[in-house]
Amino acid sequence: MKTVLSAPRRAVRGRGEGAEARIVRSIGEAIADRRLPPGTKLAEESLAEVFGVSRERVRKVLLLLAQRRVVTLIPNRGAFVAKPTAREAREVFEARRVIERAVVEALERDPLPDEMSAKLRAHLAREEEADRAGDRMALIRLSGQFHQLLADFAGNATLAGILADLIDRSSLAIAAFERRSSHSCSATEHRRFVEALESGPPGAAMRLMMEHLDEVERQLDLDARSDGAVDLKSVFADQPMGRT
Description:
The chain has 244 residues and is mainly alpha-helical. It has 10 helices and 2 strands; from the N terminus they run αααββααααααα. The relative contact order is 0.19.
């Protein structure tokens, strides 16, 4: 059955962003939003038409995404959204626990500055609004952004970069294995974490973050598989066009 999905709702960045970076970001967002499920074929010709660029540029983008392990390149068959195995899914969450433990340790060393607290609470308000509206795609996207925001606040660009890739890969794992009845990343749990980070006893925020990641992983059905054709033109229908 063909899946027809809406275009990304995130605003396109400024003119200074290169075409390849824009396409990488757009495909990454579509994967994170689960509009491009694991196993989706990423046809060069369709992507070139969607984004108004040459197939050579699309090829470069797919190579970049393959290096981040969110795309799989198969000789004589083309590019596909990576389809993680159960073992890979477990490894990704194990890696996230290591990285996010380091992030929270950095955040717990000193009181959370008022500016950071305000930004986190503003983000929580957007998550809760999406939750009330039943906008699952927005909630998924905002959840990943919450964890990335914490990494950015921790002040270690290397950790933040590693986590960005792990968030993309865990989105793939969740898309492939999440039970239909589950709710993978709760805005309520995020709020409890922020409250603990702001005023909780030592170690409370760390405990909540580890419990949170454990719960997300527990919601995966590691015997499940996801298949189905996807219309790339529908996924990226509102992307700005160009010809390069």
